[in-house]
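Sat 14:20. Reprocessing the chain from the morning session after the first attempt stalled halfway. Input below, unchanged.
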Amino acid sequence: MTRSQKDTPIGPIADDWQLAALRDISARPQYGYATSASESGTHRFLRITDIKDYSVDWSTVPMCECTPHDAAKYQLIENDIVFARIGATTGKSHIIKTAPAQSVFASYLIRVRPTGIDPDFLYFFFQSSAYWRQVSANMHNNLKKGMNATVLQSLQVPLPPRTEQCQISDLLSNVVDGLRQLARLERLAVELKESLAQVLFSRGTRGGIPAVETPVGLVPSNWAVKSLGRAVPDIDYGLSRAIPKSPPRDGVKIVTTAEITRDGVLRYDKIRRITAPARAIDRLMLRNGDVLFNWRNSLSLIGKTAVYEEQPDAHIFASFVLRLRCDEKETHNHYLKHLFNHMRERAVFVRLARRAVNQANFNRNEIAALPVPLPSYSEQREIAAQLDMVEQRRTHLTRRREVMVELFRALVDDLMSGRMRVKGRVGATEHCS
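Finished this time. Tokens:
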């Protein structure tokens, strides 16, 4: 149901709502505790990197040493809202619902404690476009491109009646619960694939074959171990050219490291265009089944690998990607993809790569010399098929979650502007009573 709206500095809101500065509906913002994270200590030490998929896995949050005086000052309690104040995630927020009794927050976070507003409603406003427009405008005016307490206090927040705030937050909380469940299922699918890969690449699919120690670890005794260059002679670099911010209409699509996910999925919907000489396009044209290996990236991402599937438009590949072209007689493309992603998860490429500042390199000559375990071609296909099946399940869950996130964002904007009203709907609002 829609109602009439009025214009405000943050955009249209329902005409029976008010606007308030954050300073008038919360305690003064507080900066976090300046210390270092460690494996042991007295308190859990929450950082912005610990917040994933609208939740925190407290079992993975590091520790810190904290005196009783500092603990009293920085202790997290229910309904605290913390914000990233600097860096790529500036403005990202999280509301505390369950936290260990001994937990504090780090110095790159700012804490807000709501007082004159439903805390969940305020948190959900911090997910809206109206909030992010204010953050972006203030970052543009801030030389450090970050967020501080003064900026936070000046933010304008819509104020529906308290009961409506609670009805809105109840509705959005149900959606977030669904997102968390999908994220949990994704993580389980990832864990299943990693466990299955460990078994398949060490035992194979033909039971009863004794394992032997090789340069790549234990493998069935009937497997060969060869340098990749002997198994895959066609290994080539991509195009070294910057991708323009404004893509050309008649350009060719180019696969970069950004479109290869860490679990080996090629995001065709994210691929950009570039202009290139006809000779280069002809040489670098991707064919169905080409293996794409990320040879230069950050330590955690080097070695991520995908298989290209033929598309309506022509595609080439960028310079930090190596193309491996299997003959599909001795080596199977999807087997290599899963093998390399498994090796990346085990940090094999990190150990072997040459290091640069925040980067690691594993170039064509080095990957050609890489020893790889090779069962028979038919067994390679069997291994790949099993891992493909789990990967397809995970990809399906990822797509569902991405669609749900987009729907959630649209719903937040509709509810936070009053374009959609929940007033009068039956819903649980016990937390407002």
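DSSP finds eleven helices and 27 strands in the chain.
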